[in-house]
């Protein structure tokens, strides 16, 4: 490049960062271009180098604030051109430095002091001037080389930044896969073509070095070890663990869950060790290129994901041992799905390796987009192919008359795969390659997590059942060591299984929220979980599609976890304790209310809402409370008071505002009371706090059965007393202590009023016991010819009738 061209480029770069620069300055530069054909004046490096440094600093500043892909591409081109100009300037300064070296050689070295040789003042002055000029040129060459290196590093950083933006910004439209631009890297790639050729040469050299003298035997041994581990080691380790499962574990589901986890782990170890042995075989030579070494190291890490996918798939299908298959899957269907885990693992390994390759040789963004799009195309088609093959096998089995059990979860998985595959292909057609790539990796990542959770959850539950079973060896050991009874041992088993399941669910949610298959290593996923707990991921509201998806996943998973733990508490753990039914219901309701609030907060966190900046929500709630939510809030607070203080609880017999019935449920806003006619009355919770409430069963209060009876004045009171006491004493529901009693209540013209009283165990027995005693008392009184006192009206009518009969008689 000529020196006048260098001046023009530098001036143009300066104008790009000067907003007030007039367009006429560009026309002024054209005049210098016209004279460039005749002369190439030298550039003053002392002036141009500071300008170039300023431009480099401005490019760095613009990169951090650039939000458009075109801006980043332009900044990258400017950095590349600036590096080329710095390199050209350095090359032009080198001849000048060499010329000065020649002149200094002609002048010769300065005479030594005391040698008696003297030179003229002109020679001394010229030598001093040349040395100063030489020193200045060397500094300028170093500065130009530093600028060239800095521009190259900046260009690489811009490329990596653009590549990361393609992963994270799924809303970026990069062009349809049907366009010719997408497929251009295959047939016209002038930028990355030389890089790929160079890398291929480095790779070929690495293979040659691995078989060089002193390394050939080691390479052969490592290669043989990889094959032995993959073929023989995996098989015999799996057989050994199967023998342990059959002969050393107790009978039951623990054998199947243990063997399924063993298959997954042995496959994972075999594939990981095989890939790392191959990496050691071909990259241990010290002269291996750095880009090849980085790629091989990255592939060793990615083999973990590939091994996990293959291991989980083999454990799920278990085609070699159908009777040991943990999930309920038809044998024909399992055989039809057998190739898919290996295919998915291979695709993930290849495409993750392709991304590592792009990063290692710093390929162009277009090549990265092509790789991401190709990944999404194959994974999207694979999702649709899996569902199509599965339905074809099911249809074939239905025609043959075989009943195929299909759970609701299997149907949901099919629907999810169909929707995901169609969405991926649509995104690729309309140009959202980043979103398609995100969905492709996310569906695989979610599948890995759910499958791992399924096996670990089964292993935890089955293990607790065996460990805390009174029939198993470990259970008997625990019983003898801790001196526990059967009920306590069952409670411990239920408690530990619930804790393990809850821990697994929480870990699953955190991985779904903070991890992704595109992470470079498991350490990065772990750091994201730590950042989540530290709150650093909730510092700002950033509504991007991935956050919205994570918020939906958090909400659905949180509600599912809440319901699962609630059912576990309500059905498994609390019934084995000594708590009464009302206390159990209160604890479950209180847990549900607190859990729902936590799930809501986690959902807001996942979507990007900051917990420390929710003043607008508090303000909105305060306004709503002031205008009409005060009753709802009052009932909500009253419900919390009822659940904590428990003046009334589920199962109590209460009377409020003339309503008497059993409390069936205490909700957040109101309480349900079941009446004797099986109808339900809904009472706001605030009424239980502000009104008088009669709790007939509070403190296990006994019931009192009282029957008042009126007898004529001519009866024998002692005889009647004995009859009444005998009727009460003979009834099984009447308690002996306190004993039944008869009270003389009143003596009037109507007769003698006696009241007989007896106690029962519960207030709920009063009505039924009273009815039985009334029947029994009436029968015994008639047997003893004891009549009850007749009402006054009946007595008057009887006397009038006797008088009428006496008048009619002659």
Overview of the molecule:
The structure is a single chain. This protein has helices at 3-16, 24-34, 45-65, 69-107, 121-168, 184-187, 192-210, 216-248, 253-283, 290-317, 331-337, 339-361, 365-399, 408-430, 433-467, 473-482, 486-514, 522-534, 545-573, 581-607, 615-645, 685-690, 717-730, 766-783, 792-808, and strands at residues 653-656, 659-666, 670-674, 680-684, 694-695, 703-711, 741-748, 751-760. It is of the alpha+beta class and 810 residues long. The chain has a five-stranded antiparallel β-sheet. The longest helix has 48 residues, at 121-168. It is elongated. The model is unreliable at 1-41, 519-523 and 532-543 (pLDDT under 50).
Largest sheet: 5 strands, antiparallel
Q: What's the number of helices?
A: 25
Number of strands: 8
- Please report which band the strand proportion falls in: under 5%, 5-15%, 15-25%, 25-35%, 35-45% or over 45%: 5-15%
* Integer average pLDDT: 76
> Structural class, from secondary structure content?
alpha+beta
Distance between the termini: 159 Å
Strand order of the largest sheet: 4-3-2-1-5
Helical proportion? 55-70%
Low-confidence stretches: 1-41, 519-523, 532-543
Dominant shape: elongated
Radius of gyration: 45 Å
């Amino acid at each position: 490049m000529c020196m006048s061209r260098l001046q023009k480029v530098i001036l143009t770069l300066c104008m790009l960062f000067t907003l007030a620069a007039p367009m006429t300055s560009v026309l002024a530069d054209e005049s210098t271009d016209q004279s460039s054909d005749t002369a190439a004046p030298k550039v003053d490096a002392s002036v141009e180098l500071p300008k170039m440094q300023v431009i480099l600093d401005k490019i760095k500043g613009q990169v951090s604030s650039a939000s458009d892909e075109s801006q980043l591409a332009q900044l990258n081109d400017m950095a590349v051109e600036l590096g080329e100009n710095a390199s050209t300037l350095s090359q032009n300064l080198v001849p000048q430095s060499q010329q000065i070296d020649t002149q200094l050689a002609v002048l010769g070295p300065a005479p030594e002091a005391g040698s008696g040789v003297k030179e003229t003042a002109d020679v001394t002055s010229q030598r001093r001037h040349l040395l100063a000029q030489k020193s200045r040129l060397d500094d300028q060459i170093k500065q130009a080389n530093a600028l060239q290196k800095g521009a190259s590093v900046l260009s690489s950083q811009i490329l990596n930044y653009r590549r990361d933006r393609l992963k994270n910004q799924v809303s970026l439209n990069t062009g349809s896969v049907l366009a010719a631009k997408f497929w251009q890297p295959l047939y016209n790639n002038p930028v990355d073509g030389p890089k790929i050729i160079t890398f291929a040469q480095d790779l070929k050299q690495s293979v040659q070095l691995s078989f060089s003298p002193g390394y050939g035997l080691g390479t052969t041994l490592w290669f043989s070890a990889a094959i032995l581990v993959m073929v023989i080691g995996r098989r015999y380790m799996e057989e050994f663990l199967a023998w342990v499962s059959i002969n050393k574990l107790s009978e039951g589901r623990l054998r199947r869950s243990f063997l399924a986890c063993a298959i997954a782990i042995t496959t994972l170890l075999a594939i990981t060790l095989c890939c790392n042995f191959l990496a050691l075989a071909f990259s241990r030579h010290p002269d291996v290129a750095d880009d090849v070494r980085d790629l091989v190291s990255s592939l060793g890490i990615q083999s973990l994901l590939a091994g996990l996918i293959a291991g989980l798939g083999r454990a799920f299908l278990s085609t070699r041992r159908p009777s040991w298959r943990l999930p309920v899957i038809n044998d024909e269907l399992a055989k039809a799905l057998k190739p898919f885990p290996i295919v998915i693992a291979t695709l993930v390994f290849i495409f993750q390796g392709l991304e590592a390759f792009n990063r290692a040789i710093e390929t162009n963004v277009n090549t990265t987009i092509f790789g991401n799009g190709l990944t999404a195309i194959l994974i999207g088609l694979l999702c649709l192919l899996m569902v199509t093959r599965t339905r074809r096998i099911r249809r074939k089995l239905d025609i043959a008359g075989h009943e195929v059990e299909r759970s609701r979860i299997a149907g949901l998985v099919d629907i999810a795969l169909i929707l995901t595959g169609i969405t991926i292909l649509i995104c690729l057609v309309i140009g959202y390659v980043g979103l398609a790539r995100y969905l492709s990796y996310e569906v695989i990542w979610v599948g890995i997590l759910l499958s791992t959770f399924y096996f670990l959850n089964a292993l935890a539950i089955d293990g607790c059942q065996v460990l805390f079973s009174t029939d198993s060896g470990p259970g008997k050991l625990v019983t003898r060591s801790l001196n526990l009874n059967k009920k306590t041992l069952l409670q411990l088993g239920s408690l530990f299984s619930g804790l393990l399941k809850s821990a697994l669910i929480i870990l699953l949610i955190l991985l779904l929220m903070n991890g992704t298959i595109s992470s470079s290593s498991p350490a990065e996923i772990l750091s994201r979980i730590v950042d989540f707990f530290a709150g650093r991921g909730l510092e700002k509201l950033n509504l991007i599609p991935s956050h919205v998806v994570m918020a939906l996943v958090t909400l659905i998973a949180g509600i599912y976890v809440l319901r699962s733990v609630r059912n576990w508490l309500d059905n498994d753990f609390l019934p084995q304790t000594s708590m009464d039914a009302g206390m159990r219901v209160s604890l479950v309701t209180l847990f549900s209310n607190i859990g729902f609030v936590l799930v809501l907060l986690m959902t807001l966190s996942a979507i990007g809402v900051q917990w420390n900046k929710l003043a607008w929500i508090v303000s909105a709630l305060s306004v709503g409370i002031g205008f009409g939510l005060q009753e709802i809030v009052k009932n909500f607070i009253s419900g919390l008071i009822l659940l904590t203080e428990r003046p009334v609880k589920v199962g109590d017999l209460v009377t409020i505002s003339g309503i008497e019935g059993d409390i069936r449920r205490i909700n957040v806003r109101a309480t349900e009371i079941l009446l004797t006619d099986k109808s339900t009355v809904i009472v706001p919770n605030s009424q239980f706090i502000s009104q008088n409430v009669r709790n007939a069963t509070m403190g296990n209060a006994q019931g009192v059965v009282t029957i008042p009876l009126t007898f004529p004045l001519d009866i024998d009171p002692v005889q009647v007393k004995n009859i009444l006491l005998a009727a009460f004493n003979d009834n099984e529901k009447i308690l002996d202590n306190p004993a039944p009693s008869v009270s003389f209540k009143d003596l009037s013209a109507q007769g003698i009023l006696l009241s007989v009283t007896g106690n029962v165990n519960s207030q709920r027995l009063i009505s039924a016991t009273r009815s039985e005693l009334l029947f029994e008392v009436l029968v015994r009184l008639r047997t003893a010819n004891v009549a009850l006192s007749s009402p006054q009206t009946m007595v008057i009518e009887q006397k009038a009738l006797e008088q009428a009969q006496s008048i009619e008689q002659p």
